[in-house]
Amino acid sequence: MQQEHEQQISLNDQMQRRLDERTHLMESGINPYPCEFAVTAHSRDIIETFQEEAKTPVSVAGRIMAIRKMGKASFFHIQDAKGRIQVYLKKDEVGETSYNTFKLLDIGDIAGVKGYTFKTRTGEISVHAEEFTLLSKSLRPIPVAKEKEVEGEKVVFDAFSDRELRYRQRYVDLIVNPEVRETFIKRSAIVSHMRSFFTAKGWLEVETPILQPIYGGAAARPFTTHHNALDMELYLRIANELYLKRLIVGGFEGVFEFAKDFRNEGIDRFHNPEFTQVELYVAYKDYNWMMELVEQLFHQTALAVNGSDTTSFLGNEISLKPPFRRITIADSIKEYTGADIEGKSEQELRNTAKDLGLELDPKIGPGKIIDEIFGEFVEPKLIQPTFITDYPTEMSPLAKPHREKEGLVERFELIAGGKEICNSFSELNDPVVQRQRLEEQAGLRQRGDDEAMIVDEDFLRALEYGMPPTAGLGIGVDRLVMLLTGEDSIRDVIFFPHMKPE
Fold first, then answer.
1. So where does Mg(2+) 1 get bound (predicted)?
2. Is 413 annotated as a binding residue?
3. Which of 440, 438, 418, 422 is nearest to 430 (CA)?
């Protein structure tokens, strides 16, 4: 506690000094927060294209990350969107006013420099300043890691490495740990490539409601809100499936949506209450066709973003080169536990789970029991991409009955790195059977399963107008980004993950 108190006093002292500097600058007629600055070059581009014989004119701007103030000449490093570069500042060239301004600057301030490129006597490519402008006075000091040699080895002190603090103050994390930016640049590239992949096939990107009067399309607890003008309860969507299938009914043959979905569930390495999902629906196709599409999509995305069809995740080298392994959920459970679940009653499934050491909620039905067994004993062991197929009907109330296997549906999940990445069905388009399935879900809700689905009369009405055979797919974008960037927590691929209040 004493140490925290002393740190706070130190922080307050530093902030007060910076406030005093701000006041001094303003009293000297210098605006520490001007409106604009013309940038013509970035650090990495300057370094990569540097020609020693040419004094190339440049205008750069960025945050000061290191500074050496001397008498009539000084050096500092600025960090921009592409990296860092050194700046040489000479009083006789930038003028006394600008140089006096510079002497009031700190690490963390943002500055603009106009000048030309050159190489110092030590061989460092730099910018020789001819004009200098303060662009933003930082009032709060940024944490700066320090290196010290201990017993012949370099040791880093005061690094901004506490994960919870990094998530809470992502803006500081991005400043002092610039490698973090690369994860999010890669995330953007992944989404961009997937979007291009879909649109190149002629499918339409659409938007559907986030606030929904009836939530559906997945088994999850929703967030609830109230609309004052309509005086009605609304829900943040848990999935966009039912709205996208309405569009297939309306005549579109391929639609997709990158959607923010919301599920009122726990938070862990693979779950965040707000997450990104892309859903795709294509008419006249089935889940076998969709498996091949997923193989193409993941393989091409990995090559486009990483330049390789292998990725390192949680210490495993994972290959995304097709074809991926395919195995039914029943066979996978038998392979990893020895238990045969095919054709078993609810009580027999409960006995199997008990024999395996699983404690189950008595309110859940047979589908959830199978899901619990699979999630505990099989899913974490599926490291290489594996299609798990042919689920029991109760586990998939929106999927079409299997054309060959009684009691099953045409569904697959792709598991990679020990976690589900995507989910797909041959979509159920028989409105009579769909009503029966949703009413069975309503019965499970009455038993106490608060994740069971609700009967959506408008969706059923849409199906009654006729929906063609359709293949549907949902991909967890955050998990795919984790897989392709090697990050071990969903919080590392979301800019601002949800946290408890400070």
1. 413, 420
2. yes
3. 438
